[in-house]
Amino acid sequence: MRGLFCSIAICLAGAGSPAQAGAQTVSARPPQATTAVTVASPVPATAGAVVPLSALLQEAARNNPDILAAARMWQATTRVAPQVSSLPDPQVVFQQLDVGSPRPFAGFTNSDFAYVGLGVSQDVPFPGTLALRGQAAERASDASRRQVDAVRRQVQADIRDAYARLGRVQESLAILTRDAPLLAEIEQIAEARYRVGRGSEQAVLEAQLQQTRLQRDVALRQQDRDLIEARLKQLVGRAQESPDVVAAAPVETPLPPDPERLLQRVETGNPSVLGRRDLVREAEANVALAHKAFDPDFTVQFMWQHTAEPFRDMYMFTVGARIPLYWRHRQVPGLAEATDRLAGVREEYTADIQAAQAQLRDQLSRAETAGRLLTIDRDGLIPQARAAFQAGLAAYQSGRLDFNAVLRSFLDVLALEDSYWQTLADHEAAVARIEQLTGVPLP
Predict the structure, then answer these.
(1) What is the pLDDT of residues 272-301, one digit of tens each?
(2) How far apart are CA 377 and CA 419, in angstroms?
(3) pLDDT at site 9
């Protein structure tokens, strides 16, 4: 079992102190990525050049299918306003009147009343109707444009989240592979003590058991890494067979001095909220259109008629109007429908603001709590755990401490370092959601 690890220590019979070797492995700094040591796999924890987060965000803006689809849908809605704000197509009319014969154009020889006519008619909505239709379509297009922003920010937040978690998994793999030789050293000490009758076989077997568990943890972290890489490739629009993504180690993003002021930015920076506001404006235009439905629309027609010689040609100009005679059954219910829809959209707008602010407060709480935990881990728990382990390792070597105590100290260091990176990834995920909800980029 010991052969699976590259030991950095020497046994009790060799030169040097295991406590000193342990001190070289466990430093007093927060966990940092180091050169990977092979553990149950020839593949290092982090391989390849680091891909900057900014490069992935730019790639997603160009290639993410959800962003591209939303942009296409918005482009389609920009074509609506010119259509609905234009006059209806005119109608061309040809007339021919015969008297005494069904043969076309035979009327001139049979009767002086026969004629051929050519005319054109145009429907004209009541003044202001077309402008309101165009305004309603523009507001709907604005809401669609906000949806593009919402999709883009959602994708960016997902990429930031996945990137931070990928960095966390890579750092966790680095910790496991870095500390594997230290666990092998503990096993060597236990075995050496067992050979000279100062230790137990159970301690040796327990150390070997922890090594096997370490291999299992490495395999699970590698699985997590592969899953997150697959998710990142999907978000940026890459093929899954493309080269692996290597993330930089997560770095804590500071929150603004007064994070509560970010709540005010929800109404002005959240694209989903702004899109709902545009839908309110569209509904207001539809209510104005419903009022216009009580006004008459017009039809203008011009007709030219040619009769037999020696009669002169005739010209006829006609103006017609559509009278809303059944307004109780059509216009009144239509206005009530538009008014109810406007009230509903306004309530949805208010609900969206409140929901976004609640989500923002939740993410702010998560980020602030994670920031406090990072300070505690970085400045307190991790250095204390490392110091306790180094002291315990020296005491175990001299026989003043039992095996279980030193093993617990080692596992505490391992768990605290892993927890540190997990907390940092959670912090950066919360920051990404804060930026998504407010539109405020944090430094």
Answers:
(1) 999 999 999 999 999 999 999 999 999 999
(2) 9
(3) 33
Q: Which residue has the tokens 């959670």?
A: 426
Position 275, amino acid: G
Same domain for 239 and 348, yes or no, is yes
Q: Per-residue confidence at 48, pLDDT binned at 50, 70, 90?
A: low
Return d(Cα 238, Cα 223) in angstroms, integer: 19
Question: Would residue 255 be called left, alpha or beta, if left means φ above 0 and alpha means ψ between -120 and 50 degrees?
Answer: beta
Same domain, 253 and 367: yes
CA atoms within 13 A on the CB side of 330: 9
Return all residues near 327 (Cβ < 8 A) that are at least 6 apart: 294
Is the pLDDT at 339 greater than 70, yes or no? yes
Q: What is residue 372's three-state secondary structure? A: helix
Write out the two tokens for 433: 């959601």
Give, in order, the Cα–Cα distances in Å from 32 to each of 139, 166, 418.
Answer: 51, 15, 11
Whole-number Å distance between alpha carbons of 57 and 50: 14
Q: What is the pLDDT of residues 328-338, one digit of tens each?
A: 999 999 999 99
Distance (Å) of CA 255 to CA 161, 232, 331, 375? 16, 25, 54, 14
**Tokens for 391?**
């002291």
Q: What angle do CA 228, 233, 237 make, to 5 degrees?
A: 150
What DSSP element (H or E) covers 403? helix 403-438
Per the domain annotation, does 285 fall within a domain? no
Q: Tell me, yes or no, whether 210 lies in a domain.
A: yes
pLDDT(427) > 60? yes
SS3 93: strand
